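User: Predict the structure for this protein chain, please.
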Amino acid sequence: MLPLHWDAVNPHSIPPGQPYRWDDPNLFFGPDGLGYAREPGDPGFVPYGPPPDPLSSLIQPKRRKAMPKSDYIKNRDAEFSAQLTTFKLNIGSYVTTFGLTTAQVEAQAADAAYFAYALACQEVCINGSQQWTAWKDLIRDGGTPPASGAPAAGVLPPAVPAVAPGVEARFRALVKLIKAHPAYNEGIGQLLGIEGPQQTGPDFAVFKPVFFVELRGGQVFLGWTWQGQSAYLDMIELVVDRSDGKGFVFLAQDTTPGYADSTPLPATPAKWTYKAIFRVGDQRVGQWSDEVSITVGG
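Assistant: Here is the predicted structure, written as structure tokens:
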């Protein structure tokens, strides 16, 4: 760690010798109230990248849908207990990095230990319950008892100090605090076990819109949804063939499920056929939907 002073320059910037910036993720205040900078090899050091291209601000990149992640909290009790323990065993290297207090770290360790204890006690009780249920059925219905005889009483693990209810809520609050710190990155999160798995999007080789059409209030209504994939899609493109010899023509790009075709209905019966495809930005994705028709007018 490098002690800081006014007008200090950064020997690790690219190029070297650039002034430190207030938003530098490697800057922090030590327990003595003085400023320090992390250096390569220090826990939590964030490598410096190349300086920004001055022309880059003039270039508008295409917007991409960020791949969402699942909740990092494990759902199954055994996996959640293991997650708490992983965090407990690895957070020690980052106490200074994230400015955590001894009380915060010890409280999380106590939560991890007591939840593991409660889970182990539950397992003992479940196993004992199964054995005693089988023994009860044997005693009532008859049969050959096992050589070991009646089940032995289960032995609970050594007790640990109890904690208040709400282990998950406290863990989420601590993780939220850590993830909001400028020194946090995904690599640290993986080590601490607090990064959720990245969700996979739809298989665009076969994925296509599914919708229905019906008359509502003198208009054709197209009932479409995101089909559970809104995180990966921006809009739907709708086209229509009104049996007028023009074939399919553009109707709309819609971002809100459910679309009303405001075109006046014809005076004589006609078949209007619709189809759709999803879009991400300015690109079509997936496959065209099946064609859906409705007779209108007359």
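Residues 56-63 have pLDDT under 50 and may be disordered.
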